[in-house]
Amino acid sequence: MTSTRAQEGKSHTSANLASSISFSEKTVLLIEMDIRVPKIMKYLNEKPDSNVGLSDYIANKSIKPNEIVNKLKNNEYLDVISSGTIPPNPSELLMSDRVKDLFEYFEDKYDYIIVDTSAVGLVSDTLLVSKFADMFIYVVSADNVDKRQLAAVAKPLYDDNRLPNMNMLLNGTNFGKKGYGYGYGYGNNPHKKKKWYQFGKS
Predict the structure, then answer these.
(1) 119 phi and psi angles, rounded to 5 deg
(2) Could you tell me the pTM of the whole model?
(3) What is the distance between the alpha carbons of residues 202 and 200, in angstroms, rounded to a whole number?
(4) How many alpha carbons fall within 13 Å on the CB side of residue 161?
(5) What phi, psi does 69 have (nearest 5°)?
(6) pLDDT at residue 60 in the model
């Protein structure tokens, strides 16, 4: 899960999606990989079992993957790996082979693994871990992103397949409006030529 910039609802969407899937009695691991500005535990109204989290695991080879998993008290199907100590070098940490080891360890232990990553338009952290993903959900806030940012950031990522199976999720829409205005450009004309972000759908 990623977005162009902060405050588009990426982390909130990650938490809600993980919770929704778990309600179907599918096992879900939610990883808080936005280690610069972690919000997942706050949205879940939970506190980590300890101060040891993802960043601590990557930095300390003596920590095992299972030691950073938080078991939620009210949901036996949803586990969470919190971000851990906020490090001075997030990008350097995410380049570690320990990240690959983490995904390989948990790959067969859960039905779904959902990863809340950083906003891809702000830092390169997300691109460092994109190779481990089967699919990306790119959250776009109708009220908090300019269409020019999408053209400059999201479109090249989609065209170059840098985020595997990239799909967009439009968040925060207001159906009372006739159009989304100049900053967004979706408009209210059904006969306008389809744009790249419509992914060829009819």
Answers:
(1) -65, 120
(2) 0.83
(3) 7
(4) 4
(5) -85, 130
(6) 96
DSSP string, 54-97: HHHHHH-TTS-GGGGEEEPTT-TTEEEE---SPPS-HHHHHTSH
Asked if 1 contacts 34 with a C-beta cutoff of 8 angstroms, the reply is no
Beta bridge partners of 112: 28
Instruction: Say if strands 28-32 and 78-81 run parallel, antiparallel, or are unpaired.
Output: parallel
**What is d(CA 75, CA 27) in angstroms, rounded to the nearest whole number?**
10
For tokens 């840098």, the residue is 162
Structure confidence by residue, pLDDT tens digits, 166-200: 999 998 887 665 554 444 444 445 445 555 555 55
Cβ atoms of residues 29 and 112 within 8 Å: yes
Please tell me the predicted confidence (pLDDT) of residue 180: 47
DSSP E strands: which ranges in 82-154? 112-116, 136-141
Query: How many helices (H) and strands (E) would you count in the chain?
Result: 8, 7
